[in-house]
Amino acid sequence: MKRIVYLFIVGFLGVASTAQAGVKEELIRLQADVLALKNQISMIDKTFTERTDSIRSLVTQLNDQVGKTSLVLGKISGALETQSSGDATLQQSLLQEIKQLSTKMDDANTRISALAQQVADLKVQSKQITPRLYQSAANNPDALALSADQIYSEAYNDLVQGNADMAIEGFTAFLKNFPTNERADDAQYYIGEAYYNSKRYPEAISAFQKVVTDYASGSKVPSGLYKLGKAKMAANQSESALEDFKKLIQQYPTATEAGLARSELERMGLDPAKFVKPAPKKKSPC
Question: What CATH fold (topology level) applies to the domain 133-275?
Fold first, then answer.
């Protein structure tokens, strides 16, 4: 939240017309802050409508405070429009009101930060206590066998939501129970993604390597090779990463990932064209 008190004091030391211009400028900024707070409160209220009563009470209080602040700002705006430029007394009165509003907005910002942390804590707790299908069906093989799609979807949702450990556990359970499923290579790849996103690069390297070796005929190999090289780069294994990028370009030259690998080689100061295998020469007819 911007601190505006000192700016207004400096502006007030100038001529009355300059002070009025400064008040208007800072008023606009404060109105923008109010709008931003209203938007934040609205998002929190909409997303977490089922949270605890204490949080909902805090949201209501913040909404009331922002609403009252908006009314005061409206009155100040009206006063600025009708006042004479030389009315120093009114300028000082407005300055005092805006100082008070600034203090209230700082308090609101602090409370919103605390609220956001409470919501984040509740979200984490919710993820931790919500049982996943593979966990609840672990002792029921028949139920598990019918739920490959749900288990895969749960793990993928955890990955998207940034819950890396649960995603790894879910995809690992999927592979354990459905090793020949058509999406097994995808599951292995997303295990690598979960490790990579959480910056556990040695584990990511191992996971992406399995995509390349254990699912060599699958469609995820180009993606696996590219992310294998990226993980190695992040782990300061540039020479080994270079070999993965070269292999990708040579074996899958038309894949989207091959273009990404070429860009990586260029960033390394290398010419990707040097790593492209020349097309075999056609035999001339006898």
Answer: 1.25.40
